[in-house]
Amino acid sequence: MQTLSLDDFDDDKPWHDDTPLLEDISNGDLIAGVRIQRLITRADKRGDLTVLISALLEPITPPPHVYLVSAEPGSIRAWVYHRRQSDRLAYTNGDIRVVLYDLREDSPTYQKLDILDVGAANKVLLTIPPYVVHGVHNRGKSTATFVNMPTNFYDPKNPDKSRIRFDHPGIPYRFE
Questions:
Q1: Alpha-carbon distance 38 to 52, whole Å?
Q2: Which of 27, 48, 76, 93 is geometrically suited to a Cys-Cys bond with 43, CB 3.0 to 4.6 A?
């Protein structure tokens, strides 16, 4: 067996292009406080790599709790909101529709509805601030996944999640 040491490894070469890790998608018509960032994928013959969140270019609240969600074809996860956290949802596969509704009475976008189609064809990091109601629908024919990196951890003894049924008439959207 050949002897191996740490000196036998080669260091990665720096990236020498101008491709950002995350790229803000400017859309002045979004619900106040919502942020969409394009997730940039780098590929080579082995596969690809997509950065989901990074403090390299700007300070971020570190994610104290990270989890992967799977959504079966046709499934709907709606409606929810949080009081004490922002969701930071990374969508990289599948065909998912995300619907946001602003019920914050003091918001300049009160009662605004946003519809976003995300997943494999539109990889994004979506940041949803507290009190913005949201839901997701897997419109694809296969299981889709997404990662949540919220700004607060989930406390099972004091959950920060409020729900209402997906077909509630008070929200002006119908999942189809």
A1: 10
A2: 48
111: closest CA among 175, 32, 168, 166? 32
Identity at 170, one-letter amino acid code = G
Examine residue 79 and say whether the peptide bond preceding it is cis (omega within 30 degrees of 0).
yes
Alpha carbons 2 and 113: distance in angstroms, whole number: 62
Top pLDDT among 50 and 27 is at: 50
Angle at 53 between CA 41 and CA 106, to 5 degrees: 120
- Give me the pLDDT at residue 125, please: 97
Nearest to 152 by CA among 133, 129, 123, 136: 129
pLDDT number for residue 61: 92
**90 vs 42, higher pLDDT:** 90
Q: What is the pLDDT of residues 54-77, one digit of tens each?
A: 988 889 999 999 999 999 999 999
- Cα 29 to chain centroid, rounded: 19
Q: Please compute Rg for the chain using Cα positions.
A: 19
Average pLDDT taken over every residue of the chain: 94
Q: How far apart are CA 116 and CA 25, in angstroms?
A: 12
Q: Is 33 left (phi over 0), alpha (psi -120 to 50) or beta?
A: left
- Cα–Cα distance for residue pair 23/124, rounded to 1 Å: 9
pLDDT band at 27 (very low <50, low <70, confident <90, very high): low
